[in-house]
Write a structure and sequence with these properties.
Strand content: 25-35%
Strand order of the largest sheet: 2-3-1-4
Pfam families: MIase (PF02426)
Structural class: alpha+beta
Catalytic activity: (S)-muconolactone = (4,5-dihydro-5-oxofuran-2-yl)-acetate
Distance between the termini: 11 Å
Subunit structure: Homodecamer.
Order of helices and strands: EHEEHE
Protein name: Muconolactone Delta-isomerase
Shape: elongated
Largest sheet: 4 strands, antiparallel
Number of strands: 4
Keywords: Aromatic hydrocarbons catabolism, Isomerase
Number of helices: 2
Length: 94
Amino acid sequence: MLFHVTMDVDIPHDLDAGARVEVLAREKAYSRDLQTQGKWIHLWRVVGQYSNVSIFDVESSDEMHDILWNLPLFEYMTVRVTPLCRHPSALSVP
């Protein structure tokens, strides 16, 4: 199943500097692992914002939910998820 996910990040300015570095490192490692597994297939930064637009290819809605809830930065995010399906006029096959 494909999902379009937008993540807007809002880390509190008063978060301890060490905690900030640690959570960002965990987030980077987690996202890289998902990309290596082929689950997080596209990741784009939104220009001028602390946001990204991503495409995930996972087995189920439950798996998508679990992936998002396990993001180390999840508590600092606003997340919007849109399930995708193939368009009948698309030339390419996913």
